[in-house]
Amino acid sequence: MPTPKPARKPLLRLPSTKRGRRILLGAGAGVVAVALIVGGVVVFSGGGGYDGGTGNAGEAVTAYLEALQRGDAKTALSLGRDQPPDTSMLTDEILKKQMEKFPITDVKILGDIPTTNGGAMVHVIAKVGGVDSDERIVLDKPPPGQGWKLDSAAMSVEFKIDDMNPDLAKSITVWDKPVPKSGKAYVFPGLVEMGSSNPALEVDNSPAVGNADPTLYEISTMSRVVYPDIKVSDDGRQIVRDELKKALEKCAESTSLEPPKCPNKAARSDFVPDSAKWTAPSDLDAVTINFMDEKTGKVMIIGNAEFGISVRTESGSTETGTFLASVFGNADMTENPPVIDFDRA
């Protein structure tokens, strides 16, 4: 009787899809492209992206979080059903910067629950920036012949700038890129780093809204509203002071007793008109640079500054002294450098 042939070993062992498996994102292991046939759908996983989707909703969420953590923008985008109209901020470079500040680690799928419309709700926990995050992410039913994907792989960020001076709004940047004219930018979920192309300004989220750190919630909604709060930066304050000093020096060049649009005035009836010799203030410590008006793009300047003055009198004598001027005006921060304008009290 012939000896029976040993059973043929499977050519490939597929990874387990048991729920609750824990993964560490950003591992340095090599990626092998694997073709799975799930219900007649060819699903590709690995370095080539997931154009065909994944075998189940939990795998789609896991693969997406893995792609985010390793800074793989192309793969992350391939896991979204709807593609964003603008991908200029959806790059490996920006994504890696997001993950450097708020890495996604210790991901665990706790449940993959079918919904009544044929979709699924994935219960996932992870650490985002080292802080525990717990969220349920809903995925729609895949179209016929396709695998599972998130509804969108990019987060839309709407900037509320309608009431802001247009020239001021133009200076706002997101990841060093101008805010699109539409007022909406598309980035991956996570940190949204705002700034300004104007070195005199700094931009943050409005204190009324707060600066909550990223969580998995952003992945469940894929949307965020930002209310930019623009302030004068430390460099900007010095720039304003420098321009204020120049403006006061310009005022001191006048021989008028009351130079137009200037804070210095010597209104005494016995002074000879146009005989003043002004000396600009050397100390501006008593002048403060206050609040930014985002509607006008101007910042208030208020305080006192001491001018020196020498002036002839009608009796023929010359009087010399100091004049404490009330400095009240503003700096137009939409201009570079800022333009100083004095308002008479």
Automatic annotation (TrEMBL):
Keyword annotations: Membrane, Transmembrane, Transmembrane helix
Protein's UniProt name: DUF4878 domain-containing protein
Keyword Membrane in record: yes
Residue ranges of the TM segments: 23-44
This protein's record includes keyword Transmembrane: yes
Record organism: Mycobacterium syngnathidarum
